[in-house]
Amino acid sequence: MGAVTVNKVAEVSAQYLAELDENAVPSGYKQTEVGVIPEDWDVENLQKLTVLIIDGTHHTPRYTTYGVPFLRVTDIQGELDDSEFKYVSEEEHAYLIRRCRPQKGDLLLSKNGTIGIPKVVSWEWEFSIFVSLALIKLKKNLLEVNYLEQFFKSDFLDLQLAQRAKQGTVTNLHLEEIREILIPLPRNKEEQTAIANALSDVDALISELEKLIAKKQSIKTATMQQLLTGRTRLPQFALREDGSKKGYKQSELGEIPEDWDVVTLGEICNFENGDRSSNYPSAHEFVEYGVSFINAGHVADGLIDLRYMDYIPEHVYERLGGGKVAAGDVLFCLRGSLGKFGVVPEEFGSGAIASSLVIIRPKKHRTTTDYVSVYFKSEFSKEMITLWAGGAAQPNLGARELANFLVPLSSKEEQGCIATILSDMDTEIQALQQRLTKTRQIKQGMMQELLTGKTRLIQPAGSTN
């Protein structure tokens, strides 16, 4: 997508906004059931723009090891993955497509469970579908299939369903409801195509970012496993004083470098529970702002989320006999989502933990906060959680169990180098995730502009703009 298109979409016409301030409907636009759209656009229900809207078979077929693909909602989420397909026999497929035959150029739409997911049939191979998918065959002289796909990716469907629903969340779409969906539509198919292409270009960018992030995360996971087991040694730690290569030894965690140890978490960290006595804050004591009172919902991915933080007054904090945090503490979740944790940053200030957390305070002469954080993101930690949580329906841990977690431990200097490498990889991934979030926001803004005609990629005949 060219820079001219992005700039045009990103900067809404000043004339349009000025006219919108002065009038409910700007010049050249009209009010419709779906909002304000250009005068040379129409609003049509989907049935008028289609040859057929039907769903897949209502019975579960007899699956086969090989045969013809049989698609469900899960198959059209993201890129097609034939390793996840179900298959039916040629005979059953021939029977199923007598009623519902998908073809290239059609649109699939999820109608049960996760509703409103569109997928253009862009392939030639035969397949049949389950009842959870609707098949939409278009009047191709009226409607561009990629434009319709972008419509379903926008908020329009959700808004229309929300207006119709009396209460609750809509989890199923009936065929009649799909047929009645209102589509804001440029009469000029070239404009439909231009809009679809602009939005598809951003979709492609989003997809590439998602793949890149997944690749970086996979590399980081593999790197973490190599560094934390010592299978890959950093050059400055790989040799003995005489220049020979260091070897390995067997341990409770498998093979580790000869100059490493396996220790318990209790040997390298102290633990502190929150105050669970009568001093524990009551619900009525929470205030709009004060001292942070951190619970399991506030920690994830090594961070503490302040957006929905709970607060207690200073005098309530002062009466607590324990569980007061300090910079560098690791706050670990003991119940429910075991393994979640957050690190208290230097600038955090005063705070205390709820009973769902425990403070893990590294012993500075043995280890560092950064290394303990790396450990809790590793497979070692996951295995220890599985071992010590007991496999209950509602798993939980205590400080006593955490203290028994086994940790592969190198020198503090090597720990620091390992943590730095992995932290740098985290920083790169976080930057990509922020870029992805921003790109998705741009896509949402573009859909709002383009699918309502606020920004025109092709000017109407006779326009002087």
Q: What would your notes on this structure say?
A:
- Residues 195-222, 422-449 form a coiled coil.
- One of its GO terms (molecular function) is DNA binding.
- This is Type I restriction modification DNA specificity domain-containing protein.
- There is one protein chain.
- By secondary structure, the chain is α+β, with helices and mostly antiparallel strands.
- Among the domains are: 41-186, DNA methylase specificity domains (Adenine-n6-DNA-methyltransferase TaqI, Chain A, domain 2); 261-409, Alpha-Beta Complex (Adenine-n6-DNA-methyltransferase TaqI, Chain A, domain 2).
- Helix content is 34%, strand content 20%.
- It contains 13 helices and 24 strands.
- The strands form nine sheets. It has a four-stranded antiparallel beta sheet. It has a four-stranded antiparallel beta sheet with strand order 15-23-20-21.
- Strand 7 (107-110) and strand 8 form a beta hairpin.
- Helix 4 crosses helix 7 (189-229), helix 7 (189-229) packs antiparallel against helix 13 and helix 10 packs across helix 13.
- It is globular and about 75 Å long.
- It starts with a helix and ends in a 15-residue tail after the last helix.
- 31% of the residues are buried.
- The mean pLDDT is 91.
| Oligomer category | single chain
Alpha carbon gap, first and last residue: 22 Å
By CATH's scheme, which homologous superfamily of the domain at 261-409 applies?
DNA methylase specificity domains
Radius of gyration: 29 Å
The tally of beta strands, per DSSP, is: 24
Whole-number average pLDDT?
91
> Can you tell me the residue ranges where pLDDT is under 50 for at least 5 consecutive residues?
none
